[in-house]
């Protein structure tokens, strides 16, 4: 996995974790006890983590949460996020779209 894809995956995981923790830190909602129907992450495990963070988290959990938040904040400022930030292009104009594979539409 490339470094950029790893950063994007880490940022996504951090956003999900912070969203779960943010719900706890801002106060419980009416649906706090329900298990979310998630596809990638285990909803029951998310509820268990939320309950651990809702109480007084131990030093290892608090340190992990702080490190996760710091990593997520750093990932939000990482870039480049624009297609105009490319260093080199096939043509001379950064606005040009170039597809490296063959464009093919089957004839029905």
Structure, described:
The chain has helices spanning 3-26, 43-54, 59-77. It has three helices and no strands. Helix 1 crosses helix 2 and helix 1 packs across helix 3. The protein has one domain. It is elongated. The chain is mainly alpha-helical and 108 residues long. 51% of the residues lie in helices and 0% in strands. The chain starts with a helix and ends in a 31-residue tail after the last helix. 2% of the residues are buried.
Attribute tags:
single chain, 108 residues, mainly alpha, 3 helices, elongated
The amount of helix comes to 40-55%
Which word captures the global form? elongated
Residue runs with pLDDT of under 50 for 5 or more positions: 23-31
What integer value in Å does the Rg equal? 21 Å
**Class by alpha and beta content:** mainly alpha
End-to-end Cα distance, whole Å, is 37 Å
- How many DSSP-defined strands? 0
Query: Mean pLDDT, as a whole number?
Result: 74
- Major sheet characteristics: none
Order of helices and strands: HHH
